[in-house]
Amino acid sequence: MKKILLAVAVCLLMAACWLEKDEKGYFLASNYCTATINGKEYIDRESYALPKVGHSPRAEWYEQYFWEDNVAVDSVGMLIVHTYLKPDKGNNNPEEYGLHLYIKDFRWDEPVEGQEYAFTAIALEETYVPLDTLVNRVYRENISLALFDVGGIGTIRYVPASGTIRFSLPEGAESNEDAGYWFEANITLRAEGNEPIDFRGYMYAYW
């Protein structure tokens, strides 16, 4: 019985540490994104996937062959970055934003410090575009893409944007090896049209 009570106490203590929050009430996830969108503050920060390591924002290396007439002619490699932003404390705007970045030819095997990539806004025939179709556009037009998913998770309505992302190493890291799989990035985007979006954000995440 004592062992069971001790085990329960240890679990509660660990949970209390894992679910610790900052002064605004957000979980202390290592990875996060903050942004000013159309003059209002947004944030992506949580911690329930792993202790103090949330699942968003995140990045993943993606590589796929490009096909022509059912023949693989080349491969397309890109870094895909996802973040899902909700209104920050004090922002009463109900709008939420997903952001998906498709960075062609990201140089993951070179020092990340100072790498900068430009995004090209493209016309979309549909409000939602499958990944294979996006890869095709990236390859044929030799561009990187930034797409807002307006409305929040589950509302797939892509809005293309132009702008840049600039990568840097986390404070104290002098090389990719020192940083492990973590990076910092400053992102500036602009979407035109009926629903213009002005986005200026900072991200600390892993790939």
Total of helices: 3
Tally of DSSP β-strands: 10
Question: Residue-averaged pLDDT, rounded?
Answer: 81
Strand content: 35-45%
Assembly of the depicted chains: single chain
* Order of strands, widest sheet: 1-2-4-5-7-8-9-10
Distance between the termini: 44 Å
Taken in chain order, the helices and strands follow as HEEEEEEHEEHEE
Q: Taking Cα atoms only, what radius of gyration do you get, to the nearest Å?
A: 19 Å
Helix-strand category? alpha+beta
Portion of residues within helices: 10-25%
- Large-scale geometry: globular
Low-confidence stretches: 5-18
Largest sheet: 8 strands, antiparallel, barrel
List keywords for this structure.
207 residues, eight-stranded antiparallel barrel, alpha+beta, 15% helix
Quick synopsis:
With 207 residues, this protein is α+β, with helices and mostly antiparallel strands. Helix content is 15%, strand content 43%.
Describe this entry's structure for a reader:
- The protein has helices spanning 2-18, 131-141, 176-179, and strands at 32-37, 40-44, 58-68, 71-87, 97-104, 116-119, 145-150, 158-168, 182-191, 197-206.
- By secondary structure, it is of the alpha+beta class.
- A hairpin with a 2-residue loop joins β3 and β4 (71-87).
SSE inventory with pairings:
Blueprint: H1 2-18, E1 32-37, E2 40-44, E3 58-68, E4 71-87, E5 97-104, E6 116-119, H2 131-141, E7 145-150, E8 158-168, H3 176-179, E9 182-191, E10 197-206
Antiparallel strand pairs: 1-2, 1-10, 2-4, 3-4, 4-5, 5-7, 6-8, 7-8, 8-9, 9-10
